[in-house]
Amino acid sequence: MNQQTPKPAVIIDDTTLRDGEQSAGVAFTAEEKLAIARQLAAVGVPELEIGIPAMGAEEREVMQAIAGLHLPSRLLAWCRLFDADLDAVCGIDVHMVDLSIPVSDQQIRHKLGRDRGWVESQITRLVRAARELGYEVCLGCEDASRADMDFLCHLADVAAAAGARRLRFADTVGILEPFTVLERIQRLRAHSDLELEMHAHDDFGLATANTLAAVRGGATHINTTVNGLGERAGNAALEECVLGLKHLCGIDTGINSRGVPELSALVERASGRAVGWQKSIVGEGVFTHEAGIHVDGLMKDRRNYQGLDPDELGRQHRLVLGKHSGKHMLERSYQELGIELQGWQAPVLLQQVRQLVTHQKRSPSGAELLALYQNLQALALDAVPLNLDRQGEGSPCPLQSLAS
Ligand SMILES: CC(=O)SCCNC(=O)CCNC(=O)[C@H](O)C(C)(C)COP(=O)(O)OP(=O)(O)OC[C@H]1O[C@@H](n2cnc3c(N)ncnc32)[C@H](O)[C@@H]1OP(=O)(O)O
Ligand SMILES: O=C(O)CCC(=O)C(=O)O
């Protein structure tokens, strides 16, 4: 972002390169990580969490290579609140370390085998140590959604006193819904002056909703991943948060949404995780319409059925012929082939298109439409004399049985 750009009301800290890569089976090469970092920065993502130094020398080298790109985005490293993890980050030019520690009694006791007092003393000691090394600190509160809120507020004070700048509220197991997120973040907001970051998981399909609720509650930062990649069901999708915040909350994150499809495709390729056809914002089919009433409405004025303008993503509405099409779309499809249908032909051809689509599980091709039309013309020519013989006059539809 250049110096003149006003600071957005919510700052995106994208973790595609950390939590995104934690998605089971996903492993980016160094080149892929660099390319993703570049593209995230190119669309204007202001903060990138780029990896876990404790994973070893190779991970650290890639993280330092990303730092060496001198991107306009601020960089974060993810560390356990643990001496060895802090040692491992030394020499990597990130701006901030996320020092993560479980804060629920469940994880403090049954994962770490410790107690609350130990967590508190670790925070004081290691946040100070990280500050002395010159890093900004975000206290990563793992499993915050299952933590005692009084204890969490107390830890915010402990972290602030030790020099932390930010607290990350992690819904690690993805069990919150937006109303509870709103309450919890409001409570933290009222209690602490720290920056507050929401880290949501999509186990119940609520990661984006929870992230938007957190912003409403006073979160200053949000953790996202491209395509919603991430542990288990994934994290809050960058593209959903950017456009959701803009259109549903009136908050501009400063991201160039037209660059998002390319970013999404890049992460899709590098992760090997196909983006679903109906995946909001970036799915291939999310601006494609078939239903006759919708298509007719769109052709009259696209605002009739447009919640999000595809142009914001450099995309367009696509109209397809299918089982649910009506005469307007059929006529348009034939016009594109240079054919003006007569009134009686549309219902007959619509039935035939429905049958074809049901069997082929796809829209008819131009050649197939042409064949249906030519067939109908031939049948009509054969039928006209019979009708004339029988009725003594021309029928408006020579193929009544087909049209019914
Ligand atoms: C919710 C999250 O997303 S947290 C991020 C999770 N991400 C990852 O785990 C991906 C990268 N992880 C790794 O490469 C490895 O797990 C490493 C390098 C971090 C650690 O590897 P190992 O030392 O072989 O340990 P392993 O992963 O089997 O076990 C984790 C250890 O970290 C401890 N630990 C977990 N979280 C924390 C924490 N926040 N602070 C301190 N210790 C922690 C566990 O208690 C366990 O320690 P133990 O050996 O004393 O029981
Ligand atoms: O503690 C943090 O930084 C968040 C870690 C995480 O990814 C999670 O809890 O889901």
Quaternary form = single chain
Amino-to-carboxy terminus distance: 63 Å
Q: Give the helices and strands as they follow along the chain.
A: EHHEHEHEHHEHEHEHEHHEHEHHHH
**What's the tally of helices?**
16
The count of β-strands is 10
- How much of the sequence is in beta strands? 5-15%
| Helix fraction bin | 40-55%
Which consecutive residue ranges, at least 5 long each, have pLDDT under 50? Answer: 386-404
Shape: elongated
Can you list the strand order of the major beta sheet?
Answer: 1-2-3-4-5-6-7-8
Average pLDDT value? 94
* Largest sheet features: 8 strands, parallel, barrel
Rg of Cα set: 28 Å
- Structural class by sheet pairing and helices: alpha/beta
Small-molecule binders here are:
acetyl coenzyme *A, 2-oxoglutaric acid
Write up this protein.
The chain is of the alpha/beta class. Helices cover 46% and strands 11% of the residues. It is built from 16 helices and 10 strands. An 8-stranded parallel β-barrel has the order 1-2-3-4-5-6-7-8, surrounded by 6 helices. A two-stranded parallel ribbon has the order 9-10. Strand 2 (47-49), helix 3 (57-67) and strand 3 form a beta-alpha-beta unit. Helix 7 (149-162) packs across helix 8. The chain is elongated and about 90 Å long. The protein starts with 10 loop residues before the first strand and ends with a helix. 41% of the residues are buried. The structure holds acetyl coenzyme *A and 2-oxoglutaric acid (AKG). Residues 19, 22, 52, 54-55, 80-82, 100-102, 111-112, 142, 172, 231 line the site of acetyl coenzyme *A.
